[in-house]
């Protein structure tokens, strides 16, 4: 890396390493080069698959990027927040995410506040896996080490056609807040870092401020710094337009969309929402399958914390209820609840701690379902709604936990069951 924190990023070479199918069609006249922004993946490597209208995921992202790249020069930027950094599973996810965005040809990863929660040591090992430039102009570790570069330049094309694009990357200090300090980082004001970065960007035809924060503050910082041609923001709804007269771009949260902007005055831009109409990249699916295997091999589901049930309480499984409640049992057998674990097997996620809680009985309780143990508690069973039934099954006068109807919304949350409606859903499983 050269002095001044600059680094030339070989974007074209990265694009070629994507390994995705399909030849690049060269059309003429050549359309304007584009900047493509993705990010705020927040651990959503793939949509969970719980229902159809779900958006996002790396496999669709890769296809959408490949389509935008077709026939034109492109710079792919990741706006950070790879994962929520909530534990070991998110570390495995973050490693996978970095490999995925690298394979898609991302040149720049602008650090978000959630990335900082991985901690200085881990973040540093993660950066080593990224084959582009990490930007974090206003972030240092509490021991004073830089977390990323303040800026990067990317040159598209060669010779007289060469177009040099400069990037300054900062993280909104208010957004990072006190969590960043507890995680071991110190932030200086983003606006000051944007100004220093802007001053150091020389010979660039196009200047981009990657502001990990809301557009209003990003645009204010960009103005104070002397102006940028484009401000890429975060933590807002996906949008390609203008904020206070300045061109802004935001890919939105949870990796549900990507945003793009053509380079040059008057060039267009837009949003691509990653819906089911976009085919999934097989290469990304393979990388995701490798992630799923790592989660399994590390036995993360076996390591989950479990709460003991009250004295005398325990789970017995649906078969133990069948003798006295044959009608309810056969109604249940005919429902999708009785096949909920099989649904996870389709993607090999039947040991994934992020999926199991809603697809089996009692994952959070001692004596509840665990992979390889208590197979009778697989699937969404009677006791998922009626509570632990050991005492009642032994003595029918013992009451069960009341409020079975209230249990639905513990699993049928909007994120996983967007069409949930109590009356309509109950009608389908009535017993
Ligand atoms: C918060 C609870 C919850 C979590 C966590 C959860 N699911 Fe689900 N899942 C559901 C519910 C509820 C449904 C039924 C949705 C509906 O039909 O309205 C469902 C349905 C499914 C289906 C069946 C879809 C179909 O149409 O056949 C699959 C597959 C699935 N989930 C996979 C997963 C995977 C993979 C994960 C982990 C990445 C996961 N789920 C995590 C609650 C959850
Ligand atoms: C030995 C027979 C027997 C077994 C086994 C049994 N039940 Fe019952 N259950 C009954 C009887 C009898 C009643 C009616 C009790 C009453 O009305 O006071 C009842 C009532 C219920 C009720 C309605 C009253 C309430 O407390 O909510 C539910 C729900 C229920 N059982 C669920 C289950 C489940 C779930 C299982 C398995 C874990 C189970 N039962 C196992 C005999 C049994
Ligand atoms: C998805 C949640 C869910 C599952 C799974 C479930 N139930 Fe229920 N069950 C309910 C609800 C909700 C009611 C209605 C409670 C009410 O009316 O307040 C109910 C009612 C009952 C009743 C009382 C019926 C009556 O006439 O009052 C029995 C008995 C019962 N369930 C047994 C079972 C058995 C046995 C199983 C497993 C084979 C089972 N349930 C699985 C949610 C569930
Ligand atoms: C422990 C989590 C959990 C609870 C509690 C739960 N569900 Fe479910 N439900 C699921 C899962 C997971 C699926 C998807 C199973 C599959 O398709 O593999 C599902 C599927 C369904 C389906 C099938 C959807 C379809 O499109 O056919 C209905 C209906 C349903 N649930 C109704 C209910 C109702 C009503 C309640 C409350 C009385 C309830 N569920 C409580 C997890 C739960
Ligand atoms: Zn963020």
Radius of gyration from the alpha-carbon trace, in angstroms: 25 Å
Assembly type of the chains comes to: single chain
* Strand content range: 15-25%
Could you say which overall geometry the principal axes of the C-alpha atoms support?
elongated
Strand order of the largest sheet: 4-3-2-1-13-14
CATH architecture of the largest domain: 4-Layer Sandwich
Number of helices: 16
Structural class: alpha/beta
Per CATH, what is the topology of the largest domain? Purple Acid Phosphatase, chain A, domain 2
Order of helices and strands: HEHEHEHHEEEEHEHEHEEEEEHHHHHHHH
Feature tags:
431 residues; alpha/beta; Purple Acid Phosphatase, chain A, domain 2; Flavocytochrome C3, Chain A, domain 2; 2 domains; six-stranded mixed sheet; 16 helices; elongated; binds heme C; binds zinc ion
Question: Care to describe what's here?
Answer:
With 431 residues, this protein is an alpha/beta fold. It has 2 domains: 288 residues, Purple Acid Phosphatase, chain A, domain 2 (4-Layer Sandwich), CATH 3.60.21.10; 122 residues, Flavocytochrome C3, Chain A (Flavocytochrome C3, Chain A, domain 2, Orthogonal Bundle), CATH 1.10.1130.10. The chain has 16 helices and 14 strands. It has a 6-stranded mixed sheet. It has a 6-stranded mixed sheet with strand order 6-7-9-10-12-11. A two-stranded antiparallel ribbon has the order 5-8. The longest helix has 16 residues. The chain is elongated, with a radius of gyration of 25 Å. Bound molecules: heme C (4 copies) and zinc ion. The site of one heme C has 15 residues, from helix 10, helix 13 and helix 14.
């Amino acid at each position: 890396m050269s002095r001044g924190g600059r680094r030339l990023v070989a974007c074209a070479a990265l694009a070629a390493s994507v390994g995705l199918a399909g030849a690049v069609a060269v059309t003429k006249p050549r359309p304007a080069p584009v900047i493509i922004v993705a990010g705020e993946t927040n651990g959503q490597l793939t949509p969970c698959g719980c229902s159809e209208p779900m958006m996002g995921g790396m496999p669709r992202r890769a296809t959408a990027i490949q389509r935008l790249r077709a026939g034109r020069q492109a710079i792919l930027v990741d706006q950070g927040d790879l994962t929520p950094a909530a534990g070991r599973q998110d570390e495995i996810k973050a490693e996978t995410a970095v490999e995925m965005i690298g394979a898609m040809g991302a040149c720049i990863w602008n650090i978000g506040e959630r990335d900082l929660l991985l901690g200085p040591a881990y973040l540093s090992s993660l950066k080593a896996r990224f084959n582009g430039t990490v930007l974090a102009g206003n972030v240092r570790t509490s021991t004073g080490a830089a977390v990323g570069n303040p800026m990067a330049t990317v040159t598209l094309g060669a010779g007289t056609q060469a177009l040099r694009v400069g990037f300054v990357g900062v993280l909104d200090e208010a957004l990072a807040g006190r969590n960043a300090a507890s995680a071991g980082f110190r932030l200086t004001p983003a606006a000051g870092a944007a100004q220093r970065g802007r001053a150091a960007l020389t010979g660039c035809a196009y200047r981009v401020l990657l502001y990990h924060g809301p557009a209003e503050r990003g645009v204010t910082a960009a103005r104070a710094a002397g102006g940028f041609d484009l401000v890429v923001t975060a933590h807002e709804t996906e949008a390609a337009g203008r904020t206070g007269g300045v061109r802004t771009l935001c890919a939105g949260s949870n990796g549900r969309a990507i945003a793009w902007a053509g380079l040059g005055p008057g060039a267009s831009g837009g949003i691509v929402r990653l819906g089911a109409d976009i085919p999934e990249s097989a290469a990304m699916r393979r990388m995701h399958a490798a992630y799923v295997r790592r989660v399994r091999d590390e036995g993360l589901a076996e390591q989950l914390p479990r709460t003991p049930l009250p004295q005398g309480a325990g789970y017995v499984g649906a078969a133990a209820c069948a003798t006295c409640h044959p009608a309810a049992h056969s109604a249940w057998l005919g429902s999708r609840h009785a096949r909920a674990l099989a649904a996870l097997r389709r993607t090999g996620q039947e040991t994934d701690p992020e999926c199991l809680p809603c697809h089996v009985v009692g994952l959070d309780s001692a004596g509840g379902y665990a992979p390889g143990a208590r197979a009778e508690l697989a699937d969404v069973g009677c006791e998922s709604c009626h509570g632990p039934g050991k005492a009642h099954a032994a003595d029918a006068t013992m009451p069960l936990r009341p409020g079975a109807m209230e249990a639905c919304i513990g699993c049928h949350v909007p994120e996983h069951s967007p069409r949930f409606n109590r009356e309509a859903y109950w009608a389908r499983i009535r017993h």
